């Protein structure tokens, strides 16, 4: 993670592990999460041009906006906000929400991160927007 000047402020350890196990209960939970998130993507907007799910939002006072989503290979969250409680606005002065800047950052990151990775089906066979 980098701050506004580009300085690295946190770096993830280079380890990975599955969020869900291979047992039936884990598969059911993963399928339910996929199904739930799939309903917020009308029209089946893909994550990184592949099967995936995403959600976005912002705080009631509009000081935070976020987007989070996953494919079978990667989970990513993007937060946009300030530490001095300023309300978020885009370049034209309109309210900035999670479905704009954070979602655009998330989509660009996921597309780049998935270059060369195989397309894998979502848990339970769900498709975005279903």
From TrEMBL:
Residues 1-21, 38-64 are annotated as: Disordered. InterPro entries: Beta-lactam/transpept-like, Glycosyltr_51/Transpeptidase. GO terms for molecular function: peptidoglycan glycosyltransferase activity. One of its GO terms (biological process) is peptidoglycan biosynthetic process. GO terms for cellular component: outer membrane-bounded periplasmic space. It comes from the Bacteria. Keywords: Glycosyltransferase, Transferase. This is Peptidoglycan glycosyl transferase. The lineage of its organism: Bacteria, Bacillati, Actinomycetota, Actinomycetes, Pseudonocardiales.
């Amino acid at each position: 993670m980098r701050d506004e000047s580009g300085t690295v402020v946190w770096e993830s350890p280079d380890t990975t592990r599955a969020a869900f196990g291979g047992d039936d209960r884990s598969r059911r939970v993963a399928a339910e999460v996929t199904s739930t998130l799939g309903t917020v993507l009308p029209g089946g907007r893909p994550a990184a041009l592949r099967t995936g799910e995403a959600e976005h939002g912002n705080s009631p006072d509009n000081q935070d906006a976020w987007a989070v989503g996953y494919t079978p290979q990667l989970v990513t969250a993007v937060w946009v906000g300030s530490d001095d409680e300023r309300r978020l606005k885009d370049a034209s002065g309109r309210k900035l929400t999670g479905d704009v800047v954070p979602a655009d950052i998330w989509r660009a990151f996921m597309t780049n991160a998935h270059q060369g990775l195989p397309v894998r089906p979502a848990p339970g066979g769900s498709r975005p927007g279903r």
